Amino acid sequence: MSFSDYKTALVTGASAGMGAAIVERFCKEGLTVHAVARRKDRLQDLAARTGCIPHELDMTDYAGLNELLGNLEVDVLVNNAGLGMVGNLTTLGEDDINNMIDLNLRSVLQSVRVVLPGMIARDRGHIINISSIAGHYNFGGNPVYHATKSAIHMLSQQIRVDVLGKRIRVTEICPGRVETEIFNTNHGVSSGEEAHKKFYEGYEVPSAEHIADTAAFAVNMPSYVNVGLIEIMPTFQVPGGLTTLKTK
Ligand SMILES: NC(=O)c1ccc[n+]([C@@H]2O[C@H](COP(=O)([O-])OP(=O)(O)OC[C@H]3O[C@@H](n4cnc5c(N)ncnc54)[C@H](OP(=O)(O)O)[C@@H]3O)[C@@H](O)[C@H]2O)c1
């Protein structure tokens, strides 16, 4: 089942970064692509550039999500919209915690709940979940983000079990640092320019287009090949490390 076997895709978080790059790539591959995000102007620009169908929606508006996704036949669902906030459970506020859980996890569960039955009925579908190395490794101090992404990892595995016997594929793409707009807010900087300086200047990191290429690679495999998990990081980035503190 390569691109030619699919007709439609829906990409969340499509107004920037990886989502926009995936929309662009999938449009080029000939799919009708539904692009979902909150910023209307960005979506309109993307639609003018790529021919995608824009949908202005906050993915944590579950009634809106049900209405939109419930009325579409989606062959390829890309759960990409995500939010990271720096802080641990002693510093994050109640809303910060809820916002990350609502977008990074709850909206993905709800999207799959709405879209999967149609895929099962048509015996055709591909779910691509964008997780993070935060879902696989310990680092920094952001337990909520790590917890949501770890849940996306397990969800990706579990959907595979649930749909065994159907031609439905599930791919988790697990990025390390990628140059997007994710660090523009909530990461101790006040502008995109500052974020660029702090997180990207002097580093060699993958671009959003590399993630789009990765998604396209997984979709383009024949129907009997499921690319389950791809970790993609800068060559000069490694997870790991051990901290041991002396008590005296
Ligand atoms: N960049 C990295 O280094 C990195 C590393 C590992 C994992 N990731 C993951 O990769 C995914 C894509 O992130 P990115 O780096 O491309 O980030 P980005 O450039 O900040 O883009 C995030 C996208 O999500 C959308 N979004 C945010 N809140 C939303 C909401 N409530 N409803 C609908 N859309 C919403 C944003 O659009 P609107 O603001 O217009 O809604 C935007 O299109 C995320 O799941 C992120 O956790 C990123």
> Which CATH architecture is right?
3-Layer(aba) Sandwich
- Biggest beta sheet summary: 7 strands, parallel
Q: What is the number of strand segments? A: 7
Sequence of secondary-structure elements: EHEHEHEHEHEHHE
Rg (C-alpha, Å): 18 Å
Structure description:
The chain is globular, with a radius of gyration of 18 Å. 41% of the residues lie in helices and 15% in strands. It is of the alpha/beta class and 248 residues long. α1 (17-28) crosses α7, α3 runs parallel beside α4 (94-122) and α4 (94-122) packs parallel to α5. A seven-stranded parallel beta sheet has the order 3-2-1-4-5-6-7, with helices on both faces. The protein contains seven helices and seven strands; from the N terminus they run βαβαβαβαβαβααβ. The structure holds NADP nicotinamide-adenine-dinucleotide phosphate (NAP). Residues 12-19, 37-39, 42, 58-60, 80-84, 103, 130, 132, 175, 177-178, 180-182 line the site of NADP nicotinamide-adenine-dinucleotide phosphate.
TL;DR?
Belongs to the short-chain dehydrogenases/reductases (SDR) family. Helix content is 41%, strand content 15%.
Keywords:
single chain, 248 residues, alpha/beta, Rossmann fold, 7-stranded parallel sheet, 7 helices, globular, binds NADP nicotinamide-adenine-dinucleotide phosphate
